[in-house]
Amino acid sequence: MIKRTLLVATRKGLFVAEGAGKQAQVTRAMFLGDHVALAVVDRRDGNWYAALDHGHFGVKMHRSANRGETWTEISVPEYPLKPNGFIDKDIWGHDREWVTKGIWAIEPALDADGALWCGTVPGGLFRSTDRGRTWTLVEALWNHPTRVRWNGGGGDDAALHTICVDPRDPRCVVIGVSVGGVWRTRDGGASWRPHTAGMKASYVPPELAEWPEIQDPHHIVQCPAAPHVFWCQHHMGIYRSTDDLASWHELHAQPSSFGFVVAVHPRDPDTAWFIPAHSDQKRTPITGEVVVTRTRDGGKHFEVLRNGLPQRMAYDLVLRHALDVAPDGDQLAFGSSTGNLWVTDDQGDHWHVLSNHLPPIYSVRYT
Q: In Å, how far are 6, 26, 88, 281 from 69, measured between CA atoms?
């Protein structure tokens, strides 16, 4: 079993777990007491990135070149001034602020060393070519005519939370926005097209249900070994695309198809994992039982995995970045809003608790 390092971003700091599968242990803490919204690694050069939300004091970003021993503060993506007279209002009729309110995605841009993509609240995408020292707004997406109709799901503003860089062509990038749909560029961000055919939203009038900018994908993953296959945990359920986003097909799982997370096996596009919740109105596990659902046949059938997970009076919610699968496809980890952290080394057949005492967990990521 290969030893792994797991970055665990929480409401009160960034924690590091090290080891192989169930033998892993939480060994270090950094930014203790600070709200760490996201932590990721650039596997090309080994740099770690952490996004912090200081509330009233704003968003900060940091980079470490030595696996967290020391950190350097880097710049935060900044929006331009809103043009005079430009109308941009939220669903409540309030003027939107063009201000970075949160970092919801960071991914390496595979076309150049040190290049990064960054997704933010209120729904903008940024690019850096110098490891986060400077950022540039992707204006073709921000100025798209449908963007002013994007809105928040759980919050007032849209959140760009998913960035999938195509391993076949680094200029091809897919993004997911809550609430704003699924978009793809094939030219490095110069132009964008929606890809939501087959998705339907029942939270709007029927005549609007298929509008691309109305869709609320909670998270999207692309299989590295079969990049024409995508999985999506949508607000309305589970969707899969096997034709390179030409269409999506809805799938049904028990005990629920509602949730926030999805992970796909890095070599098998038919194997994916989800963590169900009750519903939008009751964001808790079904009947107080924490379970993981897994399909190994492209969604025709789903298994309910519960070995090692609490099955009574457990109300852990797993947020969209709090499930990850290691490159070997066998080790997975997920953390909950109540600070519990679990791992498996057999694709979910058996789960093992690493900690029951962490702060609320926002993201987990294998290095």
A: 15, 15, 43, 42
Q: What is the residue-wise DSSP string for 145-194?
A: TTGGG---SSSSS-EEEEEEE-TT-TT-EEEEEETTEEEEESSTTS--EE
Count of C-beta atoms within a 10 Å radius of residue 86: 11
Residues 6+ apart with CB under 8 A from 235: 153, 178, 179, 201, 203, 216, 217, 218, 258, 280
What are the pLDDT digits (tens) for 48-92? 999 999 988 899 999 999 999 999 999 999 999 999 989 898 878
What SS3 class is residue 287?
Answer: helix
231, 245 contact by CB (below 8 A): no
Place of tokens 């609240």: 121
Full-model pTM: 0.96
Distance, CA of 192 to CA of 50 (rounded, Å): 28
Compute and round to an integer the Cα radius of gyration of the chain: 19
- In this structure, the dihedral spanned by the alpha carbons of residues 312, 317, 322 and 327, taken in order and rounded to 10 degrees, is 40
Place of tokens 């063009």: 98
- Are the C-beta atoms of 285 and 309 separated by less than 8 Å? no
Peptide bond just before 138 cis, omega within 30 deg: no
Q: Kindly give, in sequence order, each residue whose CB lies less than 8 Å from that of residue 98, ignoring residues fewer than 6 positions away.
A: 79, 80, 81, 82, 88, 122
Structure tokens, 3: 């030893």
Residues in contact with 160: Cβ distance below 8 Å, sequence separation at least 6, in sequence order: 104, 105, 119, 120, 121, 123, 124, 125, 175, 176, 177, 180
Give strand pairing partners of 59.
53
Pairing of strands 272-276, 292-295: antiparallel
Q: Phi and psi for 32 in degrees, rounded to 5? A: -60, 130
Q: Report the chain's terminal Cα–Cα distance, integer Å.
A: 16
Q: What is the pLDDT of residue 20?
A: 81
Among candidate residues 321, 238, 317, the one with its CA nearest the CA of residue 284: 317
Average pLDDT, the chain: 95
| Residue that has been written with the tokens 């040190």 in this structure | 114
CA 24 – CA 140 distance, rounded (Å)? 44
